[in-house]
Amino acid sequence: MPWRGTQLVLLAFLLALLAACVAVASGLSAPIQFFGFALTPLSSGFAAMICFIAWVVTRYAATQFRDEQDAGSFKRRLIATIAAILVTSLADHFVLFWLGWVAVSLTLHRLLVFYPERPRAMLAAHKKFIFARIAETLLAAALLTLYFTYDITRISELSFIADHSVSNWVAILLVTVAAMKCAQLPVHGWLLQVVEAPTPVSALLHAGIINLGGYLLLQFSEVLTPAEGARWLLAVIAGLSMLVAASVTMTRISVKVRLAWSTVAQMALMLVEISLGFYALAALHLLAHSCYKAYAFLSAGSAVEQHERQVFAQLELPSFRALLGGAVIATVLVVAAAYLLTTQLYIAPWLAVGMALALWLASEVDYFGRRHLIRTLAISAFWLGLYLIGALLLKALLTTPVAEVYLLGIDIWVCFVLLGIASVYLWLLYRPRRALGHRLFIALNAGLYLDEWATRLSLRIWPLRLPKGEQS
């Protein structure tokens, strides 16, 4: 099938899945089940997003591999990976879901080793292969435990679980699988090194495949919600990953490597949202991150031009006075929005929104001046309102339960993580020449040397033999 035919099929699937998502979410149709698959608002919406990302990626790949001799082989591997992701997205039966999960990993591996003459790509694929086998084993153990304990074989049957005496251990297994799939510390190194794979592979990986960890927890939220121990584990792993990855991102120069570290941080933030019970917010984050990351990787070649534009526009760091003013205004806006539009007790999500809004307000006011203050406030209120509308719409569309129990400890932990990220960010920007800032920059630029430990361990478990011409 030519590239154009593949794109037409993906568009047809996209429209059909969107129609099913709207029909089921609005109550016009019950969830559609057939041959072990199920079309729910979550599954059909996620699959529709995958179709859109795949359509964009195949359009890019058709141009990049136009004159390549191995274009046919690459196309077959890419289509197989996309098909595996769609099977996993729509699967309802445990066996079908697990087989799709394994197929995604195996087909992705064939894409990652598409250029076998690149040692770093081969090493990254090797580490990914080992971690994927471990995650698949843990996922199988979780699904088998659900089957033997509660006699259920489908994801749609999770809501019938009444006794959650075993679900905490199952949730811990699922959290571990999701953390490994989302490349959380310390098994994150492979994601940083697969940037040597073709650009369409990186875009599909960061915009679609990496999100399967969050999608797994959203699908099994019935098991995760009452499991406080698993939610604590998720918050700790994702919180530390977010702190380290966001800090390291500030020190990287390579565009693709910086985007890879950004993906680790964004996935960590999404997992933190899930640990707090904000499933609709996590789904919105998943959707927005997928679209942004696909665009970022496919337009990575224009990064130099974008940097030159910033230099030409003479964009500088906002002053401390502007940061203080932006923080005050952002606090007022966020507190008002939280009071009017939500009843949730958690502070951490609003702190994250407020910090991002404060930095943007400070940059805008410092650059355009106070005469544009009203315009800046109107724009910030518009984006904040759009964000809230999106979260409320996804909350109405999703059928996942809301975590009713307020876990104060997790809320405080996430707040400390967010404040730690802000502190590192401000110190590196405004005190880079101090001794502490210099040492901190060096350590973060090396990723705190965490990947070296994971690499040594993985090679000790399963040594890798590179081609003779590529050994060093």
Report on this model:
The chain is mostly helical. It folds into two domains: 3-305 and 454-470, no CATH class; 315-447, no CATH class. 74% of the residues lie in helices and 1% in strands. The chain has a two-stranded antiparallel sheet. This is Probable inorganic carbon transporter subunit DabB.
Largest sheet: 2 strands, antiparallel
Structural class of the secondary elements? mainly alpha
- The largest beta-sheet arranges its strands as 1-2
Mean pLDDT metric? 81
Radius of gyration: 22 Å
The number of E-state strands comes to 2
Shape: globular
Total domains, how many?
2
Q: Unreliable stretches, pLDDT < 50, 5 or more residues?
A: 307-315
Q: What's the N-to-C terminus distance?
A: 41 Å
- Give the % helix: over 70%
Please give the oligomerization state of what you see: single chain
SS strand fraction: under 5%
Order of helices and strands: HEEHHHHHHHHHHHHHHHHHHH
By DSSP (H or I, 4+ residues per run), the number of helices equals 20
Sum up the structure in keywords.
cell membrane, transmembrane, two-stranded antiparallel sheet, transmembrane helix, signal, globular, 2 domains, mainly alpha, 74% helix, 2 strands, 472 residues
Please outline the helices and strands.
Elements: H1 3-25, E1 32-34, E2 37-39, H2 41-64, H3 71-90, H4 94-112, H5 119-150, H6 167-181, H7 189-193, H8 199-207, H9 212-219, H10 221-224, H11 228-249, H12 255-276, H13 279-298, H14 303-312, H15 320-341, H16 348-368, H17 373-397, H18 408-430, H19 435-445, H20 450-461
Antiparallel strand pairs: 1-2
Helix pairs in contact: 1-2, 2-3, 2-8, 2-13, 3-4, 4-5, 5-6, 6-9, 6-11, 8-13, 11-12, 11-18, 12-13, 13-17, 15-16, 15-17, 16-17, 16-18
Function: Part of an energy-coupled inorganic carbon pump.
Subunit structure: Forms a complex with DabA.
GO biological process, one term: ATP synthesis coupled electron transport
